[in-house]
Design goal:
Elements: E1 2-3, H1 7-18, E2 27-32, H2 36-43, E3 50-55, H3 60-74, E4 79-81, E5 87-89, H4 93-103, E6 107-116, E7 125-129, E8 134-138, E9 152-154, E10 160-162, H5 163-169, H6 181-191, E11 195-206, H7 214-233, H8 236-259, H9 263-277, H10 291-299, H11 302-317
Length: 322
């Protein structure tokens, strides 16, 4: 479990894990460089069997979870339950997830049905289309049977992973920092021969996005990391065309945000594109660093969009269907 300045929420999640029908052999809690006062709240009355890993700085979801996975490996874990601190699994959840992994040695990860506080089902995973460069979200019922190659992935809210599969793939790519990292991991695992599935008979409640510092930073990671995903996982002959098409759409969105007074989100979109071009990895160094340039591009994107449209069409003509 990962904590970043949400210590009370994390403690509530720990209390929920205590109610599980199946007792966890070890609980590893990673604090991702929280503020001192949040660290104090986290440590106050922490049970002796909780192994706390204190990181000196925020390494994002990917880096923080990798620290927890490494600790689980040192403890000799066979399975690693990646539980977001805003996810609350029902008591029968872990038992069913372990049974699913034990029944099929090809499975790298399984996920329960995830419900939001609004009572609606959230995504269980999805499918990344390597030719079109797009993503399709899928429900727990859609993923109730094992899937692997073909771009399938399981959501990172509360999945149970096979520990040796995580070691085989070398964990999350910390270059993503946060958002889309579980998609990248699952696509790499699928290439190694592993599969995934959902177990819709059991549930977890997910509050959602308690640590995402507002919509602008979330959108920054969404754009930057989706571009990173396209670069890594699109089929080579369509990679450049799909990347240009996505940048064109994001610039169009930035212009619309600026017209409607959503300047922070417009700047975030432009800065994310600049960060991708500069091959930024990890923490968001470009976010908020160049407001004048980002504002100018966001308010005058149309000439760039026209130029990118020409480039997109030019790249598309070079693709010859098999």
């Amino acid at each position: 479990m990962l904590n970043w300045n949400q210590s009370r929420m994390t403690r509530d999640c720990l209390a929920t894990l205590r109610k599980s029908d199946r007792v966890c052999d070890h609980i590893v809690l990673v604090d991702n460089g929280s503020r001192p006062e949040e660290q104090a709240i986290l440590r106050d009355g922490l049970a002796a069997d909780v192994r706390l890993v204190q990181l000196p700085a925020n390494r994002g979801f990917a880096g923080g979870m990798n620290a927890g996975i490494a600790e689980a490996g040192r403890l000799g874990a066979d399975y690693v339950w990646i539980v977001n601190n805003d996810a609350f699994p029902e008591p029968d959840c872990l038992d069913a997830l372990v049974a699913a992994l034990e029944a099929d040695a090809t499975l790298a990860a399984v996920t329960p049905l995830v419900m939001g506080i609004d009572g609606l089902e959230q995504i269980a995973g999805g499918r990344f289309w390597e030719v079109e460069g797009r993503n399709e979200f899928l429900s727990a019922v859609d993923l109730q049977y094992p899937v692997g190659l073909g771009g399938y992935w399981a959501v990172g809210t509360v999945p149970l992973f096979r520990a040796n599969a995580l070691a085989h793939a070398r964990g999350f790519d910390e270059g993503y920092f946060a958002y889309w990292e579980e998609v990248d991991l699952c696509l790499r695992l699928a290439r190694l021969g592993y599969r995934f599935r959902a177990v819709p008979e059991v549930r977890a409640l997910h509050i959602g996005q308690v640590s995402s510092n507002g919509s602008a930073i979330l959108f920054y990671f969404y754009v930057r990391n989706w571009l990173r995903l396209l670069r890594r996982h699109c089929r080579p002959d369509v990679r450049n065309g799909n990347t240009v098409a996505f940048v064109r759409r994001i610039l169009d969105s930035a212009g619309c945000f600026a017209l409607h007074g959503q300047h922070a989100k417009a700047r975030a979109a432009v800065e994310a594109i600049i960060a991708f071009i500069g091959r930024e990895d990890g923490p968001p160094k470009w976010f908020g660093s160049s407001p004048r340039l980002a504002d100018f591009i966001a308010r005058h994107p149309w000439q760039l969009i026209r130029g990118l449209g020409w480039l997109e069409r030019s790249l598309a003509r070079k693709v010859v269907p098999a």
